[in-house]
Amino acid sequence: MKQYSRRQALIRFVTLSSTFAIGAGMLNATTARVGKGKKMPGRMGDLKPYPTSWLPKGIRSRFVDGVNGLRMHVLEAGYDEKTRPGILLLHGFPELAYSWRKIMVPLAEQGFHVMAPDQRGYGRTTGWDGDYDGDLYSFRRLNVVRDALGLVYAMGHKRVAVVGHDFGSPIAAWCAVTLPDVFNRVVLMSAPFSGMPTLPFDTADNPPGKKAASYDLHAELAKLPRPRKHYQQYYRTRDANPNMWKAPQGLHAFLRGYFHYKSADWKGNKPFHLASRTASEMAQMPTYYIMDADDGMAETVAKFMPSEKEIASNTWLPEEKLEVYSQEYQRTGFQGGLNWYRSGELGAAEMQLYAGRRIEQPSLFISGASDWGSYQSPGALEKMQEQACTDFRGVHLVPGAGHWVQQEQPLILELPAQPE
Known about the structure:
By secondary structure, this protein is an alpha/beta fold. It has 15 helices and 13 strands.
């Protein structure tokens, strides 16, 4: 696994070769009236683009209508030439298009049209259902891939590179598997992709024997001497959104604690390979992944708040930058993003249409060296390299970065050209 020094910051990230294939269509994204959102929290009807003071020079904020039922908010750089090859950046939880702000201009300076949307359920994108009891089916994986395809086409591209961070990583992987003619490069960040679902094979004359009882991780975590629970299990509960949105310490302080606890700034982040997906092994991870049974996420991160001195000295996410997240989540809450965790089994049958398929495009994995995300699913990092990807170009662990690698240490890494 290759490592890059801090001195290389903002020099290399996903600079794709000049032979990168791109086709520009005739469709153009347009700004139009606010669409009628569904059950969404906060005031959405009067949303405007970001103030220019929020963004580095060279990035604009805009809306694109008609994207799979969404009015999608998009940050864009390198938009001055229609013939530029495109790069689509997909954020994770609890992030926004804003999370890509540090690398968008460097990529545009390399000659690319860079597009970073607020994904379904996030930020200033509207048209999604934010009710816990609402339309969960629209958050299923293949529909979010349809969101990405709709935006790419609306922006006038037929082929793009796709980069996904955190929960954006499996979406980028699904984009690559289902639409290899559109998404012809893929960079996965912080969340390894272990492969497609499977279907029973050769069972007509060889019926399977009695299935062994599956290991119940959640039950076993609860039985530990110090009872625990998996964060994804917690994120599926009705209480998760109000616990974080209306956190006892305040939303801004909650986000400060959450970003700090999962970053390289918290010195306890020293990840390593776990032997198996068993309770005793998984419980070695920090409590933002394997939580104490009686705590919500607000209580979890409150125990690891940075000091006033640490907050004042933070250069990768100073208070005025964190305030953007605070303002956006104060309006929307977290339920839209949490619905991604709740919808994983929806559409399972249609997902099995891709059983056995692999990512055949040039692919790359990037993570912070202090990011537990690379190891939270034991074996996934190895399966990604050995099975899920056929043209895998390497694992790059970035020193000085935790989970928020593109914000903490916004490096530029080169992805080689696709063979002719």
